Structure prediction request, 268 residues.
Amino acid sequence: MSSARPFTLVRGTRPLLVSLPHTGRVIPPALAARLAPRALAVEDTDWHLERLYDFVPALGASLLVPHYSRYVIDLNRPRDDTPMYAGANNTGLVPLTFFSGEPLYCAGAQPDSDEVAERVAVYWQPYHDALATELARLRRRHGIALLWDGHSIRSELPWLFDGRLPDLNLGTARGSSCAPELRALLHARLAAQSRFSHVTDGRFTGGYITRHCGRPADRIHAVQMEMCWSCYLDETQPASWDETRAAAARALLRALLAGLLSWKPADA
Prediction:
C-alpha cells in the first residue's frame, strides 16, 4: 500500500471489517500552527484502540486505521456536516471545539469552506472509498459483509453528555444498521458478562459510518462500539498504555467479534 494514503488497510479472508476512524494522531505542521497549543496533545483521540484491537488480523478480519487526527477531519461525520445527534452538543466534520467545548483554533484561524472541501477530498473521501470497496469485496466473496466501527472516549464529558457513560455502548442506529438477530446476539453476549456495564442504542446509537454503511437489505450489517477509556486505560493518563486493564477488555472484544463471525443470517 502506498505510504501516501491517509490510512492503513489490512485485508482479511473472512467477512468482517473493523474500522477505527478516530485513532489517528498526525496533525500537519501548517495546521498545528493554527490550533490552540493544547491541541497538539490530541486529547480527544480514541487512544490506543489499534493496540487494543491488534488481534483482528489473526481472526482473519480486515482492519482499517487512519493516520490523521480527528482534529484534521472527523471521518465519522457526513460530508454535509449534518449534526449526528440533534438537540445535543456535537463536534462537526471539521471540529472547531474540543470535547470540553473550548475553541480548538486560535482566534481567526478557523478553516473556510474551501479548506474544508480540500480536507474532505484529501482525507475523508479516501477513507470512505476504502470502506466501501472493502465491504463490497467481502460481500462478493462471502455473500455478506460485517462492519464493526470501534471507538473509545472519556467516561465523563459534561459538554457532550450528562453523567457517566456505561463502559460499553453498542450502537445499531436503533436497530436499522444490522439484522435484529445480530443485534440480539451481541446484546446477549454483553449481558452474559458482569465486569463491564453496557447499553445498546443509548447515548451513542452509531455515527455516520454505522448509519451509512449498515444496509441489512443489501447484506451489509454494521454496528458501532463506543468503549470508555476506563475499560482499558487510566483516564487521567490516557496516552499511557495499561496492559492490566486492557487484557480483560481485549478478551471481551475478541468474544464479541467471534460472535459476529459465527453469525449466519436466516436466509444464508
User: Anything to note?
Assistant: The beta strands are 7-10, 16-19, 62-66, 145-153, 168-171, 198-200, 220-228. The chain has one domain: 7-262. The first strand starts at residue 7 and ends at 10.
